[in-house]
Amino acid sequence: MITLYGFGTGFGLPEISPFVTKTEVQLKMAGLPYRKERAMPPASPKGQLPFIDDGGEAVADSTFIRAHIERRYGFDFDAGLSLHERAQAWAFERMIEHHVYWSLVGARWVDVANFAKGPAHFFDGAPEHSREKLREDAQFRVAENYLLSGLGRHAPDDDVELAVRSLFALSVQLGDKSYLMGNKPSGVDATAFGALAGILTPFFESRLRERAEGFPNLTAYVDRMMDTYYPEFAWTPLRQAA
């Protein structure tokens, strides 16, 4: 039995982290039984979530977990894709994880109201005398990483405009297909779903979310993925929430 370590439900999502969501969806795609445990990043071999324990072997980082699943269990997440399509899927994954993801981070952690409503509560269980300092330090570190990502170097409106260009690329790639690479889900769909659901959850208000809602095929895609991979989760379809 594989054990998946993640943050758990929150922010109106079945899993707070887009990267843990990616791995969880890929485990479901592969049809592998697993159990899920809550953890914090310091518990991971690489200091980040997700990580898995597979028969005593710890594997950290969602991309390396995918490679582990493909190698150990012989499951090809991109079965049916041509070499050209596999290359495209990889390029979209890199765009999502190194650009779209950071726009989500800015909306959650840098926006004062959203930070107070969401990530600040990660520290509710800390001793009262150190709680506020822990919150401030964590927000500072994330904001610093956001700056280093490149997006955080721009004015708020400009960073959203850059993020929307990536959302536009995803919308064009999806078109009227059910999934990004065709009418059957592939590995990149787990990545895209994790990031897009994180942006579109009604829990947070942001200009990024407002702009993302302007791509009807992306909102329908998130609803479809949620219904397929988290049917038990109480998710209000975005077409109704809007």
TrEMBL record:
<dbReference type="InterPro" id="IPR040079">
    <property type="entry name" value="Glutathione_S-Trfase"/>
</dbReference>
<keyword id="KW-0808">Transferase</keyword>
<feature type="domain" description="Metaxin glutathione S-transferase">
    <location>
        <begin position="165"/>
        <end position="225"/>
    </location>
</feature>
<dbReference type="InterPro" id="IPR012336">
    <property type="entry name" value="Thioredoxin-like_fold"/>
</dbReference>
<dbReference type="Pfam" id="PF17171">
    <property type="entry name" value="GST_C_6"/>
</dbReference>
<dbReference type="InterPro" id="IPR036282">
    <property type="entry name" value="Glutathione-S-Trfase_C_sf"/>
</dbReference>
<dbReference type="InterPro" id="IPR050931">
    <property type="entry name" value="Mito_Protein_Transport_Metaxin"/>
</dbReference>
<dbReference type="Pfam" id="PF17172">
    <property type="entry name" value="GST_N_4"/>
</dbReference>
<dbReference type="InterPro" id="IPR033468">
    <property type="entry name" value="Metaxin_GST"/>
</dbReference>
<dbReference type="GO" id="GO:0016740">
    <property type="term" value="F:transferase activity"/>
</dbReference>
<dbReference type="InterPro" id="IPR026928">
    <property type="entry name" value="FAX/IsoI-like"/>
</dbReference>
<dbReference type="InterPro" id="IPR036249">
    <property type="entry name" value="Thioredoxin-like_sf"/>
</dbReference>
<feature type="domain" description="Thioredoxin-like fold">
    <location>
        <begin position="18"/>
        <end position="113"/>
    </location>
</feature>
<protein>
    <submittedName>
        <fullName>Glutathione S-transferase family protein</fullName>
    </submittedName>
</protein>
